[in-house]
Structures are given as structure tokens and as C-alpha cells.
Fold each of these.
Amino acid sequence: MGRKYVTVSVKIPKEIKDRLERAGISPSKVMKEALINTLKEIELKELMKEVNELENVLAKISVEKIVESIREDRER
């Protein structure tokens, strides 16, 4: 299945657009990259939160219990 795209627009002062283009910078490319990077940062923060929550849960399990569980699994 192909990707679906939507158009997102933003108004900026013409002077800014002109200066970016003179510098060889595509405003749409910069905006696309900024949105993608922002989303990556948000997802990374969410993932780190989940990792921290899992660490708290795992910290409550003793090494002895883990070893015992592994031995039980091997015996089955």
C-alpha cells in the first residue's frame, strides 16, 4: 500500500521566504524536516518514559527469582 500525503501550509513573511531561497534553502524542505524531527523527539521521550517504568517494575524482581524462572523454563 502506498503512502498517503496531505498538504500542510504555513504563512511566513515574504522577506523570510526570499532570503531562504537566495541562500538556496527550500522552506518546505526545512519545515518537513523540522516536523519529522519534532515527532522523533516526542516518540523518543515517550519511549524513554516507558523504559523508565519498566525499569521500576524490573527492579522489584530479585535476581534469585529470575534464575528460578529460567531454571523452571529449562526443565519444561
Amino acid sequence: MTQIADDPRSVVEIKVVGKSGQISIGKDYAGKPFRLERLTGGRIVLTAVAMVPESQLWTLAEPHRSRIERGLFWAGQTKPRETSVEMLLKRKSKAKAHSRDRR
């Protein structure tokens, strides 16, 4: 049974939990992770979530997050251009020479 809720963007459905304790919410959600909240009064809220591997959590913390956002903004605004490998190698060797001088 499907009923349109007060909010025109929402749909309310009546589902019955099977003998195995499972409920089907549709193939559109198959394989997606959800957060399950059990609220007082027997209410349950399922919220779709995105999972972030622990090894990548640092990208969400400052100052890394802001730096990544600035870099992505720069990349979106800057036209690509051909790179001279020879020039990059010269820059790298100059940087090494400067770092030796500072010791």
C-alpha cells in the first residue's frame, strides 16, 4: 500500500517484516549502506550513507579539506597545458642543490 505524505516529495508505504526479520525497501537500494536509528516509540529511521575508508579520513579534516577544495577549484579554472619533462627535472635538481646549501 502506498500513500502520498503531506510533503509532496515524500512517499509513505506500509511494509510487513517477514518471519526472518527482514523488510524489502526495493531494488533501487540494493547493496547501499544505511544508518539505522531506533527512536523512542518504536520508530526506525534509515538514512543512506557514504562510507569512507579509514586511510582516507584525513581528506575530510582541516587543513587538508580546504587545501583539496582550493586545488580542485584551481584545476577547474585552469586550462591544461603541455609540460616539459626536462624543465621539471631541472627544477628538481635546483631544489636539491638549494636544500644542500641550507645545511
Amino acid sequence: MDPTPVAPARRRLPRWVWMLVRLVPLAGLIVAVGTWSHLPRMRLEPALVGLACWTVGNYLVCPLRWSAVSTRGRSLRWYARVYAEGELLGMLTPQHAGADLWRIRQLVAAGAEKGSAVVEVAADRLAGGVMILALGVLAGMTVPPRFFPIAGLAVAAIAVAVWLTRRLWQPRIADVQRPRGWAFVRAAAISALYQVGYIGFVIGLVTAVGHHVSLLGTASVLGLSQAASLLPGVHGAGPREGAMTGGLVALGLPLAAAVSVVALAAALAWLPAIVVGGGGLAARSLSRMFSTAGGTGPRWAVRRSRRADTRAA
């Protein structure tokens, strides 16, 4: 009798990647607790309210924006799960690149062509960039004159990125399935809801450290900081955080308070990422572990049985 065919082994991530996934969020939480304990007049409630606003925006509104430009027709639950998993991976990689690569991989696994998946994720990012550009224009009208060069460079960076994307990719996507009609406009409008949640996050953190900022000023600072995120950097220690710190100082916060707000924002973002995104990845791993392989039981049991048969032979 022919031996049972052995399924090709899956490519496993290196051990250091799994160690990084475990240690980096823990380090972020330690930094958050340490920063929290050294801040005078710290109040927990405004920070938690702000975190809730941002969590809803990032893990519900953003998947809704993605589904608006998607041509796959999947359920909102699928988009939310994949987006949350990608966010956790993106926080571990420079330029948040892991998030987009994960989404592209899942779209391809769901039956999309690679070119179509890339265009879909790029369209989602571009829809979010429209609101960033709008906030950047708002920043140019509200920040002090000495910050005009920074605001101008931020808006110019977005404009150049959009122009280059259109110039380089349009000839390549002529035959690729992409969003049609008002899908992009709807996605851009949905992105405005995410920005509202982000503004609530920043205002909550500023209130938590004992200061106050105006709604218009906060929106302008967010526009500058998100435009600065186009430059290379990692989560919690990149141009976006530097631009936000400078913007908060320009709005009247002491430097120590501005740094505390940015540090807490970067650290607290790990909480929903671990719970929502990490929970999705853990559920996916358990599903693979206990999924049946040809009706013979869980895969780990099948592999153990095959190893025993090999030793016996």
C-alpha cells in the first residue's frame, strides 16, 4: 500500500519574530505605566474616554472605509478582523508596512488577484489621505506663522505622494479591477469619522495630563502629524510623534506635558491592538491547529502520527 502523502510543511515565522511580537507590546505598556506614574495631576477617566473614541474609529470606522472601496464583497466582520490583525503587525514594522502587506495577503487568499489587492489597499489609504490633506490645509490656517514652512512641507509631501502614485501606477492598473463610481467619495467621507475619533483621543489625553486645547487646534496638529507619518519611522518614535509634540507645544502645552501626551498615545494604542488584533491572530492559529486534515483529526495529531509511523518504519 502506498504511504500516506505528506502535506507540504507551512513556512513558519522565525522565532525572533514571535519574541518581538510578545516583547514589544509589553515594553510599550511598561513605558505607559512609567510615564503615567511620573505625571502630576494625571486623571484616568479622560484618557480612557479618548482611547475608546480612537478604538471605535480605528477598528470599526477604518474597516468600514476599506469595505467601501473593496470589490471583494466580503462581510464587515471579515474586513474588521483582517484590519485589526494588520494593525498589530503594522505597529511592529517601520512605516506601518506590515498592516498593508497583511491585508494584501488576505485579499489574495480570498481569491483576489495580487494587482487588484494592491490597488484596493492603496485606494483605501488614499481615501484616508484626502482627510489628512484637508486637516493639513486647516493646519496652515491655524498654526502660528513660524510653523508655516512645516505645514507647507507636510501638505506638499502628501500632494507629491498622490501625484507620484497616480503617475507611476495608473498605466499598470489599466486592466485591474478597481473601485468605481462614488465608492472613493464614500470612503473619504467615512474617513472623516475616523479623524473625529482621533481628535477625541488627543483631547482626552491632553485633559488627562491637566491641560486643555481647542478643537480647531487639535485638528490642525493631527493634520500635520499624520502628514509627517509619510516619512520613515516606527510606531511611537517617528516623525509623526515629533510633529505632534511640536504642534502641542505650539498650542500652549509645556514640553513635558506634550511629550507625555504623545508617549501615552503611542503606548495606549497597544491595548486595543493586542486585544482585538492579537485576539484575531490567536483565534486564527487555534483554528489551524484544531482544523481537520482529511477527516483524520487535528493537524498536530496527524503530524505526530506520521512521525510515529516514520520511526516505526
